[in-house]
Amino acid sequence: MSFRCPQCATRDGLEIEGSIELPPDRDAQELCLQVVVCKACTFRGLAVYSEGRGDCPESETWNHIGYWVSPDAVDSVAAAIRSCPNPHDSQCTCPAHVELGQKDLRGRWRGLLELEHGHTFAMRLFLG
Fold first, then answer.
1. Which residue(s) pair with 78 in the sheet?
2. Cα 43 from chain centre
3. Which of 68, 94, 114, 123 gets the highest tally of CB atoms within 10 A of its CB?
4. Of residues 58 and 81, which shows the higher confidence score?
5. Burial class of residue 115, CB neighbours in 10 A (0-12, 13-18, 19+)
6. What is the 3-state secondary structure (H, E, C) of the chain?
């Protein structure tokens, strides 16, 4: 799967380099934190894919949002994902899942709260 790069605007340059499925929170039944990189330029960032909780299956919603973050933040998340023995298991109890999956007192994923203060971009899928 390729996406439009927010930095160089290459239509199919942005790819998901790594991802980790996180435990659901009060708003989302599915949460996935991703490291995204452009194969055409030097851009690296993070993305979050989430599927919301609806009252019925027809009302479920999803979001896929990219975040401009510091290179250190990208490196830190990438290292955590690489350290996980099972990144596609949201119930994994490894240190990476514990650290990246922290929730606030109301049960909302803290990672999203921290990322929301930065610049975002749409994850625009390119279907070649």
1. none
2. 16
3. 123
4. 81
5. buried
6. CEECCCCCCCCCCEEEEEEEEECCCCCEEEEEEEEEEECCCCCEEEEEEEEECCCCHHHCCEEEEEEECCHHHHHHHHHHHHHCCCCCCCCCCCHHHHHHCCECCCCCEHHHHHHCCCEEEECCEECC
| Residue 79, token pair as written in the block | 């290292």
pLDDT in tens, 21-51: 999 999 899 999 999 999 999 999 999 999 9
Angle formed at CA 105 by CA 103 and CA 108, multiple of 5 degrees: 40
Q: What is the pTM of this model?
A: 0.89
Position 27, amino acid: D
Report d(CA 121, CA 6) in Å as an integer. 7
- CA–CA–CA angle 27, 15, 57 (5° rounding): 30
Q: Which amino acid, one-letter code, is at 89?
A: D
Report the half-sphere exposure of 95 (CA within 13 A, side-chain side): 6
User: Among all chains, which residue has been given the structure tokens 């019925």?
Assistant: 56
Cα 11 from chain centroid (whole Å): 20
